[in-house]
Q: What sequence folds into this?
């Protein structure tokens, strides 16, 4: 059911081609919650490992997948890399013993982490990163220039998802910047990093190392185009009809409704379509089914809200007046709104409005325009959409 993303796929294929030929290309993929970042990575992986052909033929990269949580520190991260490489490459005896030797420093980290050596102090991140870069370069050179009986590889691609969750202790920006520079010094030119996360990840990377952003090609994942939305609906219908005994059809108006309500958010398309299918009882999904499925109690909006936005709206914001400010801002979706415009519609005091804007900015729910005084906008368009529609439903 994967739709669209032609440009993102072409750019990535080109990046693989470049990396295979010794000009490593790194990607930073950002986009709002549920827009399709992880799904894009799931498609990138087979392109990199050769299970799906690219425009430049079948690639043959070793791929390492990882996803970051707030608890991930440098040591866990390196252990994941070590484990991933051994899993992917360790099937051949000679490579396995090569890896064990080259990555022996990980053993040291494990011992330190387990506290067996009681007096050992945690190692400097610099030293660990240095060891890692060296081992990675050795590994990459070995697999691209294999010894007898070993299979050649194009290089290594790291997929790092949920990078917005990175804690400052992970030093992610610094890590990537130093590792890529050191790889170059060690003549290792076939390693690619692909990092995905919410737009906040940009700030996290540059906080960790100012110029770390410069190494990336930045791909912003956007809403699906109209024809892609239709494609998702139609694929879903034919898959449904393949597995169900009773056939279901869908009217053009219903498709169009799902498409516009979703605003191109793939998870919204799925949810609106699912709820319409659920409510339909005559074999044809009509516009009415879509609307009832979307706005009814327990319908699409409720489900989406519960999954993605409810905690932001109810738990992180304690005051009803702050929520009023958000509702006013949500009318403009995620476009910049002047404080004076909000004030016109806001029924609370000036002070409350000022406090609300400050608190919401601090919690990164809204953004303050850095280049224009007194302008704010909702951080996520999807969240704005949800607030807007959720409010409408209550009315
Ligand atoms: N291009 C696409 N075509 C069809 N469906 C898609 C596409 N992209 C994503 N989806 C669907 O939308 C849903 C959300 O996608 P996904 O989990 O990839 O988003 P995400 O950006 O990684 O979200 P999060 O920020 O929560 O990690 C998934 O169920 C996925 O199957
Ligand atoms: Mg994701």
A:
């Amino acid at each position: 059911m994967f739709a669209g993303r032609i440009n993102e796929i072409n750019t990535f294929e080109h990046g693989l081609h470049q990396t295979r030929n010794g000009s490593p290309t790194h990607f930073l993929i950002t986009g709002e919650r549920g827009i399709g970042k992880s799904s894009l990575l799931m498609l990138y992986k087979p392109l990199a490992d050769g299970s799906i052909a690219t425009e430049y033929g079948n690639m043959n990269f070793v791929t390492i997948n990882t996803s970051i949580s707030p608890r991930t520190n440098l040591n866990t991260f390196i252990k994941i890399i070590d484990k991933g490489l051994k899993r992917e490459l360790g099937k051949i005896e000679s490579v396995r013993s090569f890896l064990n030797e080259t990555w022996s420093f990980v053993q040291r980290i494990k011992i330190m982490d387990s506290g067996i050596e009681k007096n050992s102090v945690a190692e400097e991140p610099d030293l660990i990163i240095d060891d890692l870069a060296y081992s990675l370069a050795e590994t990459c050179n070995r697999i691209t220039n294999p010894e007898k009986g070993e299979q050649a590889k194009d290089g290594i691609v790291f997929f790092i998802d949920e990078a917005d969750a990175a804690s400052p202790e992970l030093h992610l920006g610094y890590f990537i910047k130093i590792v890529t520079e050191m790889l170059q010094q060690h003549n290792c030119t076939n390693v690619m990093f692909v990092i995905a996360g919410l737009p906040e990840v940009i700030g996290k990377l540059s906080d960790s190392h100012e110029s770390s952003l410069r190494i990336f090609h930045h791909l912003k994942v956007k809403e699906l185009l109209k024809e892609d939305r239709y494609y998702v609906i139609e694929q879903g219908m034919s898959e449904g009809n393949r597995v169900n005994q009773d056939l279901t059809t869908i009217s053009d108006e219903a498709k169009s409704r799902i498409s516009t309500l979703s605003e191109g958010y793939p998870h919204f398309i799925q949810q609106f379509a699912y709820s319409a299918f659920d409510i339909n009882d005559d074999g044809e999904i009509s516009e009415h089914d879509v609307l009832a499925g979307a706005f009814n109690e327990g319908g699409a909006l409720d489900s989406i809200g519960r999954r993605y936005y409810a905690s932001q709206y109810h738990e992180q914001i304690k005051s009803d007046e702050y929520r009023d400010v958000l509702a006013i801002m949500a009318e403009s979706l995620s476009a910049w709104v002047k404080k004076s415009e909000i004030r016109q519609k806001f029924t609370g005091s000036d002070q409350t409005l000022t406090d609300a804007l400050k608190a919401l900015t601090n919690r990164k729910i809204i953004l303050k325009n850095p280049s224009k005084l007194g302008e704010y906008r909702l951080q996520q368009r999807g969240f704005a959409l949800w607030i807007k529609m959720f409010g409408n439903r209550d009315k």
